[in-house]
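Budget justification aside, the reviewers requested a transparent look at the raw inputs and outputs of the sequence design task funded under Objective 1. We therefore reproduce one unedited record. The lines immediately below are the structure tokens for a 96-residue chain.
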């Protein structure tokens, strides 16, 4: 397992091979990650909260991640900001 700082969010690589990368992301209130391109992926929320997703064109979208939910996410470029009052934690399985 290795931990990388992505902006101010903590990203830990839990598993990786030539086909998939599994990461855990932790964001404290006010933390904001770097703008990065992410491949197709599945996200599972361990600890939900309020998130603002920023896009390269200047748009942003606010939404709530609900604990215990999973969702498919298409390839995209964005950064994530924790705009809530508690830590947000999710695991992402990225298809490489």
């Amino acid at each position: 397992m290795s931990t990388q700082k992505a902006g101010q969010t903590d990203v830990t690589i839990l598993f990786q091979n030539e086909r998939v990368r599994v990461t855990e992301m932790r964001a404290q209130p006010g933390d904001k990650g770097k703008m990065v391109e992410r491949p197709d992926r599945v996200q599972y929320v361990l600890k939900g909260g309020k998130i603002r997703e920023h896009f390269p064109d200047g748009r942003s979208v606010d939404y709530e991640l609900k604990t215990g939910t999973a969702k498919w996410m298409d390839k995209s470029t964005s950064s994530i900001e924790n705009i809530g009052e508690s830590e947000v934690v999710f695991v992402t399985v990225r298809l490489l």
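The chain has a mean pLDDT of 93. The chain has one domain: 2-95. Computational costs for records of this kind are itemized in the attached budget.
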